[in-house]
C-alpha cells in the first residue's frame, strides 16, 4: 500500500475526521465537474488527489508513481476504463485499491468483471459514501484508530466546472461526428448532466444513446444535444 509518488510527503496517520490522510488517489476522469466533486471529497477526507483525463494520461502517471487508490471512469475519450482496470488488476505490484465509477447503471458489473475492487455510482456527492467505499477496501492498518466521525455532508461542485464540460462537448461536436464520437458524447453528457441534476440535457443524451444503439437515424437527437449544450454556454456568456 506504500505510495511510491516521489513527490509525496512522508506517510501521515489517518484520523477520525480525516480518515484518508496519507493516501494519494489517482482519479481517471474526463469530466471537470465530476473531478471537482472528487477533489472536494478527497480534500475533506485528507487524501491527496492527482487527475488524469484519459487512458494515455493515466498510463503516463502510472509510469512515474503508484498511487494508493485509483478511481477509473469507465467512459473515457480514448477508450474504456475497463481496459485500464484489467491492466492494473493483473499488474505486479498492484495498486492497493482499484475502484470503477460511472453514471451507467450497468457499468458496475463491467468494472467488477475487469478486476475492480469496488464501484462508485455517479453522482458521487456523499462524503460518507465516498470514505466508506475507499476504507472498506483498505487493510486495517490504514484505517483511523478508534471510532470514525461520519460526516453526513453533501459535496456541491463549482458550477463553472459544469460549464467547462459543456465547452468540452461543444469542441468535440465541432469535429467530425462519426459514430464513435457520438457514442462518447452521449455517454459523457448523460453522466455529467445527471450529476448536475440537468434532467433535460440528461434525457436528450439518453435519447441519442438509444438511437445509436438501435441503429436509427440520429441527426435530430444529435442536433438537440448540440442545441442544449449551446444554450448552457450562452447562459455563461450572459453571466
Automatic annotation (TrEMBL):
<feature type="domain" description="Response regulatory">
    <location>
        <begin position="24"/>
        <end position="137"/>
    </location>
</feature>
<dbReference type="InterPro" id="IPR050595">
    <property type="entry name" value="Bact_response_regulator"/>
</dbReference>
<dbReference type="InterPro" id="IPR001789">
    <property type="entry name" value="Sig_transdc_resp-reg_receiver"/>
</dbReference>
<protein>
    <submittedName>
        <fullName>KDP operon transcriptional regulatory protein KdpE</fullName>
    </submittedName>
</protein>
<feature type="modified residue" description="4-aspartylphosphate">
    <location>
        <position position="73"/>
    </location>
</feature>
<dbReference type="GO" id="GO:0000160">
    <property type="term" value="P:phosphorelay signal transduction system"/>
</dbReference>
<dbReference type="InterPro" id="IPR011006">
    <property type="entry name" value="CheY-like_superfamily"/>
</dbReference>
<dbReference type="Pfam" id="PF00072">
    <property type="entry name" value="Response_reg"/>
</dbReference>
<keyword id="KW-0597">Phosphoprotein</keyword>
Amino acid at each position: 500500500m506504500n505510495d511510491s509518488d516521489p513527490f509525496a510527503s512522508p506517510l501521515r496517520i489517518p484520523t477520525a475526521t480525516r480518515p484518508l490522510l496519507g493516501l494519494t488517489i489517482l482519479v481517471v476522469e474526463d469530466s471537470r465537474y465530476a473531478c471537482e466533486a472528487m477533489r472536494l471529497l478527497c480534500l475533506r477526507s485528507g487524501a491527496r488527489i492527482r487527475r488524469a483525463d484519459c487512458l494515455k494520461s493515466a498510463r503516463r502517471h502510472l509510469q512515474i508513481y503508484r498511487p494508493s487508490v485509483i478511481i477509473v471512469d469507465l467512459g473515457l475519450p480514448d477508450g474504456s476504463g475497463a481496459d485500464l482496470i484489467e491492466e492494473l488488476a493483473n499488474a505486479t505490484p498492484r495498486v492497493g485499491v482499484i475502484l470503477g465509477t460511472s453514471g451507467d447503471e450497468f457499468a458496475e458489473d463491467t468494472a467488477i468483471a475487469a478486476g475492480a475492487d469496488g464501484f462508485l455510482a455517479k453522482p458521487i456527492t456523499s462524503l460518507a459514501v465516498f470514505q466508506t467505499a475507499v476504507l472498506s477496501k483498505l487493510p486495517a492498518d490504514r484505517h483511523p484508530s478508534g471510532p470514525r466521525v461520519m460526516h453526513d455532508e453533501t459535496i456541491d461542485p463549482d458550477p463553472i466546472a459544469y460549464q467547462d464540460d459543456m465547452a468540452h462537448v461543444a469542441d468535440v461536436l465541432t469535429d467530425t461526428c462519426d459514430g464513435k464520437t457520438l457514442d462518447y458524447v452521449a455517454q459523457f453528457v448523460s453522466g455529467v448532466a445527471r450529476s448536475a441534476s440537468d434532467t433535460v440535457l440528461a434525457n436528450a443524451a439518453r435519447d441519442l444513446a438509444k438511437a445509436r444503439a438501435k441503429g436509427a437515424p440520429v441527426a435530430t437527437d444529435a442536433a438537440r444535444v448540440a442545441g442544449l449544450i449551446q444554450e448552457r454556454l450562452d447562459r455563461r456568456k450572459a453571466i
